[in-house]
Amino acid sequence: MASREMKELPPKEVFWHDEKMHQIDGFWYLDSLMESIAAFRSQFQPRTDDILLTSIPKTGTTWLIALCHSILHRHDNEEEEEDSLMKMNPHELVPTMDISYLTDQVQEHLKSDHTTTTTSPRFLHTHLPYSCLPEAVRSAGSSCKLVHVARNPKDTVVSMWHFYNKIFGSETTPDVTMESAVEGFCGGVIPYGPFYEHVVEYWEESRRRPEKVLFLKYEELCRAPNEHVRRLASFLGKPFGSDEDGDAEVEKVLWRSSLNRLKELEVNKSDEGLELAPIIPKSSFFRKGTVGGWKNYLTPQMAHRIDLLTEQKLQDTILSLDDF
Ligand code: PAP
């Protein structure tokens, strides 16, 4: 999938108002990102200790970035107020490869990991499905670690609805209705979708290579944050102590990464776009962050439709509706 071939692909579908999408090997991608995706896939050279965070949009990316950053850098600063999350939006701290691989900032980031006080490991994010990751990352010899976060499909579709209406809407375009958002979601025509195939690929890989791929769920992070942050830290090779000091460190990481804290930071309040993706306002990543908030937006029919699809799509896996 070289970038020239990608450019020549005819658009196959339209997303939201009029965003062109292409389907490649079963997954959908926004036309505007095809060049960046192709470059990431063909040029990216993993380092042995890279940490690659993965997610379909709106399933917990921002939280995962903040948690991993806070875990890895918890001993960097003595002062509470000096962590890098105070100074940079999480998406500028840890860039999304498929969106901004070709920018100078990302190329610099890849060379020097300039956003952190230590030089290693590199810490990156992608929304690509597992089967579309650069071959060098997927190969048996690759030792970089992947952390995936998944979320309840109904809360995901509601979160997407808010987000895409914000970034692809305008004062003159009416919002896309929830009904058509659900339609698109169930048909699989969402960026990096279909949703279920994306989730199942990472789930299966986490079972095949548990030492290299960690699969987390937004809901379990909400229900038992201390337990799963400990799990995450151990996977990253930075376990917390099991004593009171360890407990205090876990609490600090959770507080630093919390939605309530991040959404109140000046750096995240702005409606200004991200430097790496100017169409996306910095504030657009922070909303309610609840489990089950879909009940306020989906009709019983919409919810039932998604539940049926979830059961059908997950029936051959040991993931189930109860997992979310
Ligand atoms: P992205 O994939 O475009 O980066 P992502 O961060 O995955 O977006 O999703 C945003 C969701 O995570 C929002 O959920 P909501 O629409 O249901 O409210 C957002 O509120 C939530 N979120 C962002 N930061 C955090 C956090 N620190 N803790 C918990 N949830 C968060």
Assign the CATH superfamily: P-loop containing nucleotide triphosphate hydrolases
Bound molecules: 3'-phosphate-adenosine-5'-diphosphate
Count of individual domains: 1
How many strand units? 7
What's the pLDDT, averaged over the residues?
90
Going by CATH, the architecture would be: 3-Layer(aba) Sandwich
* Spatial ordering of strands, largest sheet: 5-4-6-7
Task: Give me the Rg, rounded.
Answer: 19 Å
Order of helices and strands: HEEEHEHHHHEHEHHHEHHHHHH
Sequence stretches where pLDDT stays below 50 over 5 or more residues: none
**So what's the overall shape?**
globular
Explain what this protein looks like in three dimensions.
This protein has 324 residues and is of the alpha/beta class. The protein has a single domain, classed as Rossmann fold (3-Layer(aba) Sandwich), CATH 3.40.50. Helix content is 45%, strand content 10%. The protein has 16 helices and 7 strands. It has helices at 3-8, 34-43, 61-72, 90-93, 97-100, 104-112, 135-138, 153-168, 178-187, 195-208, 218-223, 225-235, 244-257, 259-264, 266-269, 300-314; strands at 13-15, 19-24, 27-30, 51-55, 123-126, 145-150, 213-217. A 4-stranded parallel beta sheet has the order 5-4-6-7, sandwiched between helices. A 3-stranded antiparallel beta sheet has the order 1-2-3, with no helix packed on it. Helix 8 (153-168) crosses helix 9 (178-187). The protein binds 3'-phosphate-adenosine-5'-diphosphate. It holds the Pfam family Sulfotransfer_1. Keywords: Transferase. This is Sulfotransferase.
